[in-house]
């Protein structure tokens, strides 16, 4: 077993081997270890769930609350390049040493209780937050909500960004079933924000049954805007003349208005002035979410990995203007709705560069090829062993006015990001 001051890589390798399955939904084991950790924080807790948009929502919450002067802890997943990205304190990633101490605390507390990689990391993050003097802790749900490890921690406010089809093997194969799982983070008498303008009835019914204070996008709050600015309209307050979020894409106003609805609900505990809202929205950053890199050809990175996210990406690409050719680097996991995601992107792609992804869940490029063939795409398709090889190939061929889009998985985007970093450093 690693000791407290072992390297982070050693801890992560150890943690990964402590449960026979990578995903084992349920709260009993996590709750037992949480009790043994015996740590708490007076900070307000905001838990964020939903199919898509969780990362953007968490990033905006963090940026606005920091601009308002609050001490903020943020836990998200998955990471792109470093595990440290998952745990942030006042917008700085936790150090290797901090994370090692967190893992050591969980290891000492768990005894013989088996924990998955995500459960171990969630408890370690919570322990680290409890060692700090924080005003707010923002927690991103990993999968679902009701049985996700994050749900053992009691929130003061919850946000479900939206409900779409994903992780059907675990959450169910209808929006109603998935909506019930997402709504599992709601709490009786506590503010619950739903960013989906058309939520499943199961979500609405669960909120009503437990007595959550539910606010729904388009019913209880919303937004309006023009090309220059936008306005948030809440239950009791409006925020006018807002700059568009620095995160690109028209869908970000759905996320931003959900953030402001949550802050409105917490106004008496965490007052946030207008200037902090403006500053936070202007400065927020989140790699891999419709991230457009400077230079030519245009390079777009987006972790879209299900049909809804791919449809949003396709819409955002349509709004970018004219490009002679769009080259798509795509690698996906085999348990995703690959056909639905590829179909959503068909109108925006001229050349397909399909990649193998590693691990037991990684789909083969040849699998994606068969699906494209079923969708009627027979030409301008190439296969690669990995995303970075595809990126090197397209960089050598794409015209200066073209566009290169990487999507399909966090793994796909991360591999291309690393390739870009290596290329930049070698110049």
What does this structure look like?
Helix content is 39%, strand content 17%. The chain contains 15 helices and 17 strands. It has helices spanning 8-16, 28-37, 54-67, 96-110, 117-130, 168-171, 175-182, 201-210, 252-265, 274-283, 307-318, 338-345, 365-374, 387-397, 410-426; strands at residues 44-49, 72-75, 87-89, 92-93, 136-140, 157-160, 191-194, 213-216, 222-225, 230-233, 238-242, 291-293, 298-301, 326-330, 351-355, 381-384, 403-407. An 8-stranded mixed beta sheet has the order 4-3-2-5-1-6-7-8, sandwiched between helices. Strands 12-13-17-14-15-16 form a 6-stranded mixed beta sheet. A 3-stranded antiparallel beta sheet has the order 9-10-11, covered by helices on one side. Helix 13 links the parallel strand 15 and strand 16 (381-384).
